[in-house]
Design a protein that fits this description.
Layout lengths: L5 H19 L10 E2 L13 E2 L1 E6 L1 E2 L10 H10 L1 E5 L2 E2 L3 H11 L5 E4 L1 H5 L11 H7 L1 H9 L15 E2 L1 E3 L6 E6 H6 L8 H14 L4 E4 L4 H8 L18 E3 L6 E3 L5 H15 L12 H8 L3 E7 L3 H11 L8 E3 L11 E3 L6 E4 L6 H11 L2 H9 L6 E3 L12 H7 L5 E3 L1 H7 L5 H9 L9 E3 L11 H11 L3 E3 L8 H26 L5 H14 L1 H16 L1
Parallel strand pairs: 1-2, 3-5, 3-7, 4-6, 9-20, 11-14, 16-21
Antiparallel strand pairs: 7-17, 8-17, 10-14, 10-15, 12-13, 18-19
Helix pairs in contact: 2-13, 2-14, 5-6, 5-13, 19-20, 19-21
């Protein structure tokens, strides 16, 4: 099949989807000629092609999946809701800083992607809208969704919800796990490492045998590396979804306790380990500055090891097989969690993926809620995850008219992946792309990295080598070190104000120190002085506030 041009793709999508809509009431990929209607009609269902309003949407734009504003799923959402979407994505590396500026200056776009850590310091009705009053009036599906997943009550801030959580359904356990060049491991006659001492020795041997290779790679800074690896090494720093700048929950201390890892003795062992790896040229020499795209490039050519979301290994393996068609499997493989002093410990990629918040400046928040509420209807889930029926996928089983049970098992039961199948033409179109799944989702406007509330897992597996991803999933499922990350407890207004100041003061001391120790620019003796300064600045007070908030949940 010849590749479609962007224009031909959109035109084909529009025509086919329009036919499907007439036959099966599926929203087409592009709206009919637009007819504007008065704002007072916003609560009524729009006639086909009528636009009742516009909302501005922003989120971090992942380099693997650029946002396409006129993607078929976006246009179909407008057709179904009457709400036009004005996209203002920001590169993912710049997004956290940009978001905090918006929050601090009360210039938040109408609908904004965030984590609870992002909004905690600014969760105020003058910045963001409390959500439950809006859901009571405009979001019946979203209200049932929130009630069916009570764990999100940990996200209450001063008694209010400010985020619509993004969750996975049909979920496959995915987590940051050790990924290694198995081909080079086998060639050197080495066994897979099981603890961190063995990992150091193995990587040293691999680097000796492959002197032009880069040893351990990482993306987006040293602090992120420490966030991922300090927990399995027996300490901790933040968490994947709580954010980098918060304590971690140590289930092995006093029956479970929040700790600010960098001020405790165990964290010095983590720093010493990576300082040694850096000095011996096993750690990527550019570890402090490597971006996500540079990290992918390294792993697609000359890296030996990384510890991250193992799903990305599909991209790296595809690059190797494209360069050398004789490679049929690998060369990257996934290992179980490496054992540390407290055993194999690592945060699982929980179903929670941050969420969506609504700006206090949004003039018509009901339009935002209308879009998100429609998204979690059965047809909304299919369009925002699979694209347009008859154009991108075929429906092989019944689609319910309504979802009664929004627990994840309830959604899985009525929306199974087995009832949906990507069309052969779509599979063919993307099969030679560097990242077929991400390329498909980018052009269709679907999936976790776009505008979704419930993200369907496993769609991209159709392009993977048979058995490869299944083996990695089996490794993750059997890994005793993987468990769900404990979400931060809910805080009251006074605690939020205290944490805002304390965290800033402590970060200003600790962030530079963490990096300097790893890069060999600060001794551990000097690091002890920074720890003392951080404790004086309130690091232990941060722990106290978290643990007091956690204790209230048990009452």
């Amino acid at each position: 099949m010849s590749k479609l041009t962007r224009r031909a793709f959109v035109e084909a999508t529009t025509l086919a989807a329009a036919s499907a809509a007439l036959a099966a009431c599926v929203p087409p990929a592009a709206p009919a000629p637009i007819t504007e209607v008065p704002a007072q009609a916003s609560e009524a269902a729009p006639a086909p092609g009528q636009i009742i309003g516009e909302i501005t949407i922003t989120r971090g734009e992942h380099p693997s999946q650029p946002i396409v504003p006129d993607a078929p799923a976006h246009l179909a959402t407008t057709e179904a809701t009457g709400i036009r979407m004005n996209w203002q994505p920001v590169p993912s590396a710049d997004y956290p800083g940009k978001l905090r500026v918006w929050l601090a200056t009360k210039q938040v776009p109408d609908l904004t992607r965030a984590t609870v850590a992002d909004v905690r310091d600014f969760a105020d009705p003058s910045v963001l809208q409390p959500l439950m009053p809006l859901l009571d009036k405009y979001g019946p599906n979203l209200k049932r969704y929130m009630e069916a997943n009570p764990e999100v009550n940990r996200w209450l801030i001063n008694g209010e919800h400010y985020l619509i959580p993004v969750l996975h359904y049909n979920w496959e356990r995915s987590a940051p796990m050790p990924c290694i060049r198995k081909d080079l491991l086998d060639k050197a006659g080495l066994s897979a490492p099981e603890d961190f001492d063995q990992l150091h020795e193995t990587l040293a041997e691999l680097k000796k045998a492959n002197p032009d290779a880069i040893g351990w790679t990482n993306r987006n800074g040293i602090k992120r590396l420490l966030m991922l690896i300090s927990y399995p090494m027996g300490s901790g720093l933040g968490g994947w979804f709580k954010g980098r700048d918060v304590p971690y929950f140590d289930k092995d201390v006093d029956g479970g306790k929040w700790l600010y890892g960098p001020i405790h003795p165990e964290f010095k062992e983590v720093l010493a380990y990576f300082a040694r790896m850096y000095e011996e040229d096993i750690l990527d020499p550019d570890i402090a500055t490597t971006t996500s795209e540079q990290w992918h490039e390294r792993n697609s050519s000359k890296a030996l090891f990384t510890w991250d979301n193992y799903g990305f290994a599909t991209r790296w393996n595809t690059a190797f097989r494209t360069a050398d068609p004789s490679i049929t499997t690998g060369p990257w493989d996934v290992l179980p969690t490496i054992k540390g002093p407290k055993g194999p410990r690592q945060n699982d990629f929980a179903n929670f993926e941050g969420g969506w918040c609504v700006s206090a400046a949004c003039k018509n928040p009901e339009w935002v809620i209308k879009v998100l509420d429609w998204q979690i209807t059965p047809i909304g889930l299919d369009i925002t995850n699979w694209g347009i029926e008859g154009v991108h996928y075929t429906l092989k089983g019944p689609r319910p008219d309504k979802i009664e049970d929004y627990t994840l098992p309830g959604v899985n039961k009525v929306m199974p992946n087995a009832y949906r199948e990507l069309l052969p033409a779509i599979v063919e179109k993307y099969k030679n792309e560097p990242q077929p799944g991400y390329n498909f989702m980018s052009e269709t406007g679907t999936g976790l990295l776009d505008l979704t509330v419930l993200a369907c897992s496993g769609i991209g597996r159709v392009w993977e080598v048979p058995g490869q991803r299944e083996a990695w999933i089996a490794t993750a499922e059997a890994d005793p070190g993987l468990h769900r990350e404990v979400l931060m407890p809910p805080f009251d207004a006074a605690e939020i104000e205290q944490l805002k100041k304390l965290q800033t003061d402590v970060n200003n001391i600790m962030d530079p120190a963490l990096e300097k120790v790893v890069l060999g620019q600060m001794t551990l003796a000097d690091y002890d002085k920074e720890v003392a300064a951080a404790i004086k600045a309130g690091a232990q007070d941060i722990e106290r506030i978290y643990n007091e908030a956690e204790a209230r949940l048990a009452q």
